[in-house]
Here is the input.
Amino acid sequence: MTSDRARKRVASLKRRIAQRIGISQSELRKTFPIQGQSTLWEKLNKLTSNYIDSHGWEVILDALKTAQQTRQNGFITGCSHSKPWQPIDIQNAAKSLSNIASSAPDPQTSFEAPRTLASHTQADTAGMNDSDSLYSFPSIPSSPSRESLVAPPEDGSQGVPGVHVVFCDMTQFEDIAKDRGFRSLTVNPRDPFFRGSVMNSLTQQTLSELQRKAGRGLCSNLSEPMVVDESRAGIWPENSPNSATVHVHAIVLTLLWAKHQGSISVEFHDRDWLEDMLRKHSLEDYLEAFGKQVLLFTPMRRLHMTESQLGSDFNPAALDAAIEHANARSEHEIKSYPSRSEAQADRTRTSDMRLLEEVAKHAPEKFSFRPRLCYGKAGECQMKGFEGQVIERCDSTTSPGMTVIYESDDVRLNGTLECNSGYFRRTDKFSTRRITGSYRKDRYFHQELIPTLLNWGEIHVIMVGSEYFCACIRHGKYGDKDSFVSAVIADRCFKEWKRFDENVENVTTAEAEAKVKELEEFCRWWRDELIKRKPEVFETFKVAVRFDIGISKIGADAQFFINEMPRWPGADFMSFFMDFSYPYDEICQAIGQKFAAEYESIVAGESEEMKDETMSDSDLYGDD
Here is the structure.
């Protein structure tokens, strides 16, 4: 969205809100003294649309001020406590107004499980009774502010899904409960304050079935004795809310949000199921039998896998051959998601790095910075003469390989790099060992480690479509999963530069906020340019992407650069660390909706790229 379009959009929203609540635009500006921030105005527009008739403006404003005061008093982490208004204020006000509209039923008297997902029909639960589940839980009315994001058609039906997704977990993660919020969300069906159609639909029966089919790498139900680790046994009293805690992978909730739109159906399996189908040569028949477009969703990026860990019954080539055979026989398209070419680019890393280097040569000056890099090929090192720390990375046929930090003259680089940096002499022994296969065939390359990645941090930006959706920053040792992670806030990240370099001056809040705007512009430009340059390896970018971003130096004039760009199917969302509120599924919701809309448009014969890349008001919040 250009700045001119953004200003027009905000002006239109202000007029609409002022007219709806019956005050002048000048009064509205006094109440909400904020500039720009289209996301905030869009949320406020939807909030007033939902509640003006039932509650009136005074009640809405009171709820907003209460939420604002709660945040400014420091009771909410991961967001600015000094700004007059934040989107999270509107989210929390919506929850408060929802509770006023409809009080939750008494958990002791109401035990009917909610049926808000289209998939939870009588047919799905045929033959089940209360004794089939470990427990039931109260039906909680969904928050209108969240429910409106995924409102079904007015006739109450969601139609027949035109695309079927067969998801297979390819990770080696033994138990998602061991994750610390990077790739998982916590679901507690007993919690009377759960909000959102998808969250409220996750009954104990649903979660138990998910764990059985997909494995504990996607769903770990700590309330079931058969899956409780010895170390976890007896932690919670049997009837406490925490005894029902279930950890669910973010990708599962994302696909459930996509399913909730009505245009996509989905099923979940583990790697053993896929290996068995390949071994029996029955995968082609299985995929063809659906009689509709099928996506075999097999993200392999994380956790890092090797071919030996995948097992002798599985290899990417066999999977590709099975899908190609099924697609050739079927009347409907059957394909991998991500595509083979994109998955390979994501796993090997080198092709992405080469494209980043090439695009940077033609980028606007402020977006053109790139760290020095050498691809490790035989001959003169492209970083010859560089002194300092380097990041060594490697390609892999199954996933991005290891990332290691070395000093540029470390002799250990002899064993992996074929280039000659000038710090050491390569002997024939090393070359012969690589040729004869004593070393892995993975390709290693090395890159300048920009010091700011160590002392300032690395930003993780989630893009949904072409929108900068949210971001967090990781502080501490580069590559260390125990490093501190928090939401990106202008005052915290781009204002007090002197903390990192005493020779650099701090800037004003306005200048810090301008830097955040520059970050947003940077992400949009690079996302659009990469799709334009090589659409076949950036197909998933049309739905979402996570950009891992560093800065060239300490100071307000620092330039941003992309360090890595994991595709969304394999990227950690880090939802818990973003500027969101419980239950932290906003990223899953946004990406799931975008994914469903993208493939709904393909089935309808439209362009894969949405007509309005920036997501219109109706796309995000429903029609007025």
About this structure: The CA atoms of residues 222 and 231 lie 11 Å apart. Residues 509-533 form the longest helix (25 residues). The mean pLDDT is 73.
